[in-house]
Specification:
With 213 residues, this protein is of the alpha/beta class. Helix content is 34%, strand content 22%. The chain is built from 7 helices and 8 strands, in the order E-H-E-H-E-H-H-E-H-E-H-E-E-H-E. It has an 8-stranded mixed sheet, covered by helices on one side. Strand 7, helix 7 and strand 8 form a beta-alpha-beta unit. Helix 1 runs parallel beside helix 2 and helix 6 packs across helix 7. It is globular. The C terminus is likely disordered. The protein binds glycinamide ribonucleotide.
Length: 213
């Protein structure tokens, strides 16, 4: 079994989606959810999803080896960043080189970098009158939102789309593609690196849960 740890700082809707996707997998298991925020909703999700969860403050992440020790103890093979807002220490990035995957809610390199996360990204996209947005899944290096892009999904925007609407469209892409891309990457399966998705009226309906296993 390949063991993954999901790191998340906020609500954790992607985390929940990933946990559910792999719940019956014979190959991949979400073995831990780690947060830097004691009050993050992702920790409540961890409880009801029955995944062990851990909290480390920013200083513990950056200035101690506690997180590294936990990852060693749990025999974690891959690290997934799902809305995780702390830059990982170089020691972890080095040790897990090629095995740390992040999702960003824009078409990087646009709207990435320090301070660009969540709704701030969607507001900037709307203010710039972009005609499309999307998601970028990439392997990380020691900088925010950089590293090798492994997948992008694009979706068209309407001139009337608000930041909230863009967020909804982008979240739908995240739910649809992030677990599948994680699976393909880990199992070294070939997959499309770039897709364009036609908007549909109720984007939430594209949320996928694996029902075939
Ligand atoms: C997601 O949209 C993710 O792409 C974004 O945070 C959100 C977390 O949502 N990540 C970044 O902005 C990273 N720079 P969630 O907590 O509901 O999964």
């Amino acid at each position: 079994m390949i063991r993954i740890a999901i790191l998340a700082s906020g609500s954790g809707s992607n985390t929940e989606n990933i946990v559910k996707y792999f719940a019956k997998s014979a190959e991949i298991e979400v073995s831990a959810i780690i947060s830097n925020k004691a009050d993050a909703y992702v920790l409540e999700r961890a409880q009801y999803l029955h995944v062990p969860s851990y909290v480390f403050g920013k200083t513990e992440f950056l200035e101690t080896n506690k997180v590294q020790l936990l990852l060693d103890e749990l025999k974690i093979d891959w690290i997934i960043l799902a809305g995780f807002l702390v830059l990982l220490p170089v020691s972890i990035v080095d040790k897990y080189e090629g095995r740390i995957v992040n999702i960003h809610p824009s078409l990087l390199p646009k709207y990435g970098g320090k301070g660009m996360y969540g709704d701030r990204v969607h507001k900037a996209v709307v203010e710039a009158h972009e005609k499309e947005s999307g998601i970028t899944i990439h392997k990380i290096d020691a900088n925010y939102d950089r590293g090798t892009t492994v997948f992008q999904a694009k979706i068209k925007l309407k001139p009337t789309d608000t930041a909230e609407k863009v967020a909804q469209k982008v979240h739908a892409l995240e739910y649809k593609f992030f677990p599948v891309v994680i699976e393909n990457l880990i199992l070294n399966r070939p997959f499309e690196k770039e897709v364009t998705v036609e908007p549909i009226d109720n984007e939430q309906s594209v949320r996928v849960e694996r029902k075939d296993r």
